[in-house]
Amino acid sequence: MKKKFFPLFALVAACNLQADEKALTGPKYVDEAPLPEKWPTPGPYNKVEKKSYPAYRAAFTNGKGETSSFWTLFLHIKKNDIPMTAPVEMSMTEDSGQLDQSGMAFLYQNGKVGTKGPDGTKVEVRDVPAAQALSYAWQGTDSKENIAKARTALEETIESQNVESTGFRLLGYNGPGTPRNKRTWELQALLK
């Protein structure tokens, strides 16, 4: 009796092909809006990398509610005819051992756009100096679990490289038009 190995071989080959396709279709940045001038693209995903950021101008609000902060800043850029860019920056503070949003900023394309200073009582446009950061990017949600995982990776790198951080910020690169599992985030430890 002759054994047929073809069906088993085909099954193994199909599984290997699926694994290769999954590796090739790993996290990929969904580009929805232009980055500020000279701003590095997000990534690499799921590991820590040191990055340099140029000086930039941004509109800040100190609202803690993500939705209300977003709409406050959106109305500001709409009223002042400022084009939308990515990412949106969220300042983070520690509360009971976890990081929580304490403010939000919309970044301008460059330092020539808009005017520095207050715009009403909730928005202030500021110039931010160039900085270096340790960055951990991922694709998915900005859940407390994902932020905690990124923070752990950053803190381990801070300790192993013996560097000092001045705090954390979260960069969100995608809006509601991108499925939640395809959104790109970067938690960053800003370096002294």
Structural class call reads: alpha+beta
What's the CATH H-level superfamily name?
Regulatory factor, effector binding domain
User: What shape does the CA trace take?
Assistant: globular
Number of helical elements: 3
CATH topology description: Multidrug-efflux Transporter 1 Regulator Bmrr, Chain A
Q: How would a textbook summarize the main sheet?
A: 9 strands, antiparallel
The number of domains: 1
CATH class: Alpha Beta
Q: What integer value in Å does the Rg equal?
A: 21 Å
Stretches with pLDDT under 50, minimum 5 residues = 5-15, 17-22
CATH architecture: Alpha-Beta Barrel
Query: N- to C-terminal separation?
Result: 74 Å
Q: Name the helix and strand elements from N-terminus to C-terminus, one letter apiece.
A: HEEHEEEEEHEE
Question: Major sheet: order of its strands?
Answer: 1-7-9-8-3-4-2-6-5
Give the quaternary arrangement of the chains.
Answer: single chain
Protein described:
- This protein has 192 residues and is an alpha+beta fold.
- It has a single domain, classed as Regulatory factor, effector binding domain (Multidrug-efflux Transporter 1 Regulator Bmrr, Chain A).
- The protein is 27% helix and 33% strand.
- It contains 3 helices and 9 strands.
- The chain has helices at 6-24, 66-79, 144-161, and strands spanning 48-53, 56-61, 88-95, 98-107, 117-119, 123-128, 131-139, 165-172, 184-191.
- A 9-stranded antiparallel sheet has the order 1-7-9-8-3-4-2-6-5, covered by helices on one side.
- Strand 3 and strand 4 form a beta hairpin.
- The protein starts with 5 loop residues before the first helix and ends with a strand.
